[in-house]
Amino acid sequence: MNESHVLVVDDDARLLRLLQRFLSENGFRITTAMDAEAARKILAVTQPDAMVADITMPGEDGLSLTRSLREKGQVFPIILLTARGEPADRIIGLESGADDYLGKPFEPRELLLRLQAHLRRHVPRPSSAPRLLRLGKLEFDTGRNLLSGPEGIVHLTSGEAALLGVLTRTPGEIMSREVIAEALGMDEIGERAVDVQVTRLRRRIEPDQKEPRFLQTVRGKGYVLKPGS
């Protein structure tokens, strides 16, 4: 993760300077933008390894920017910042496609740790003995958190890859929302956040999201991953 490039988008110039200095001192290469329009101009010429964006900004907000990037196929980790810290607001952030949510004010150290965690999940890890799980026409390499199919690699966000990685630890066994939330570091947001991530992952792996074959809901208990052809 050395020299990972992070785009930080916030209309607070003081916070931008603070984060640029702090994250740079911790080995990141930082580009800053004060609104979504400026961020889009940067994204048109370069792709960062991760993005940190404020939700409340003049003009286009961070939710809209995040949703737009996901619709265009951008899968790098996105962490949203906001002064609104209610769980319902965090769910909205996850539904827009964000991987994480940090309420203001926050300790820069916490942002650093979250960035490092998401980048670890996002970057495929080498494995001398990969274990492949088949999900229809797709294969998931559990050693590298890599999903591929007939047309090549299926790009997952760090949150989607992390969820699939957690579920493949015990394929065929029911895993409660509480256990999944703890494994994904979503304890503070709650079980609803798990449901959001499940919905997003199903879009990647299920031929028919209305009748899921591989990632099934067990009413009142949680979810179960059922690999197969």
Automatic annotation (TrEMBL):
Q: Does the keyword Phosphoprotein apply?
A: yes
Note the Pfam families from the entry: Response_reg (PF00072), Trans_reg_C (PF00486)
The chain positions of domain OmpR/PhoB-type read: 130-227
Q: Indicate yes or no for the key word Transcription regulation.
A: yes
| PTM annotation (4-aspartylphosphate): residues | 54
Where's DNA bound on this chain?
130-227
UniProt keyword list: DNA-binding, Phosphoprotein, Transcription, Transcription regulation, Two-component regulatory system
Give all residue intervals belonging to the Response regulatory domain.
5-119
GO-annotated molecular function: DNA binding
Q: SMART domains attached here?
A: REC, Trans_reg_C
Output the superkingdom of the source species: Bacteria
Q: What is this protein called?
A: DNA-binding response regulator
InterPro entries on file: CheY-like_superfamily (IPR011006), OmpR/PhoB-type_DNA-bd (IPR001867), Sig_transdc_resp-reg_receiver (IPR001789), WalR-like (IPR039420), WH-like_DNA-bd_sf (IPR036388)
Protein's organism = Asaia siamensis
Q: Where are the transmembrane segments?
A: none
